[in-house]
Amino acid sequence: MRAASAPTCLPAAVVGSALGRAAWTDGHRTAENIARHRHTVTATTLGETTYRAGDQPSSRPATVATATWHCPPQCPHTETVPVPAGTRPGDTVRPWADANGTAAAAPPGRAETALNAVGIGTRAPAGIVPADGALRSGRLRPVQGAGDG
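^ thats the sequence. predicted structure below, dont judge the formating
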């Protein structure tokens, strides 16, 4: 049975590598594009820090505070932004902002892009090899049953 599955492992690894590389290239390009349109601003916190639940159930809560900044210089912004724990009112923080000066998430980093690429690259073989095994066991069962009689 192992010898029958061996021909599937190499193509599964090749497909996984190709998908992982494509995900890395696309993710890296997307991160660079986002970074071109975002920058950090110097802001001053106005209130105490609080905790905000993450966007997804598995994400950690973030420490946030209301802060104000001017970007462009004549345009004031006041928004709730992520801040380091222990930030006090009046502290200076450096949140990310988009081209309009509105608070925005930081561009994805290399680690986030790499983890995504590895995840995508390993899902293909993780699905192909068991599916092949299930198909092969389904095809081999009648052969095994014929020799028993």
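The chain is about 50% helix and 20% strand.
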